[in-house]
Amino acid sequence: MLSEERTFVAIKPDGVQRGLIGEVVSRFERKGFKVLAMKLLQVSDKQAADHYAEHEGKPFYPRLVKYIQSGPILAMVIKGYGAVDSVRHIVGATNPVNADVGTIRADFAQVMEYNVIHASDSVNSAEREIAIYFNEDEIFDTWKTKTEELIEEDELL
Ligand SMILES: Nc1ncnc2c1ncn2[C@@H]1O[C@H](COP(=O)(O)OP(=O)(O)OP(=O)(O)O)[C@@H](O)[C@H]1O
Ligand SMILES: [Mg+2]
Question: What is the pTM assigned to this prediction?
Fold first, then answer.
């Protein structure tokens, strides 16, 4: 059975300030993913610490936290089939130098420290990160896409 996943995606402050919100969101919409939630927000000290807990103590950690708090981010919950890995493919490698042509990081970023976008790396991270930025009542999973309808019909056959 094909299963859907939710993932957490955030356009980092430089992406927001460079006017890339529409460009980035349109890539996920064109893919057919559902945007279940979206919020422009200033990351708090606690949210930054929770989000990047796995990197605490690493040399780049202070810069990472400073960067994510340098202006508002556009936080999103995205849902679709294989969404966690699929979104990571569309986002590209952490270091934009190595990101495949056509990915967001290859197209819009130059260096690893300032790579424009965040995307969860597993279903578990996604659910953990969604909870840092959203209450469940801010997430709207109340309609079906054509793809969902077709796949669900197939499964009844
Ligand atoms: N060696 C490094 N030097 C500088 N910055 C780094 C380094 N490794 C990671 N970062 C920064 O920390 C962020 C989180 O690192 P992580 O290993 O989770 O990469 P990622 O999963 O590709 O990125 P993200 O979590 O932002 O989607 C990266 O997006 C990057 O901005
Ligand atoms: Mg990561």
Answer: 0.96
> Could you read off the pLDDT of 113-152 as tens digits, one per residue?
999 999 999 999 999 999 999 999 999 999 999 999 999 9
Q: For residues 62-71, give the mean pLDDT.
A: 97
Active site residue 55: no
Ligand 1 test: best mutation among 94, 95, 112, most atoms within 8 Å of CB? Answer: 94
How far does the centroid of ligand 1 lie from the alpha carbon of residue 92, in Å?
12
User: Structural domain tally of the chain?
Assistant: 1
**Domain at 142, CATH number:** 3.30.70.141
Which whole-number Å values give the CA distances from 156 to 5, 81, 147, 152, in the listed order? Answer: 20, 18, 15, 7
**Distance of alpha carbon 24 from the chain centroid:** 10
Helix (H) or strand (E) holding 34: strand 34-41
Residue 13 lies in domain? 4-156
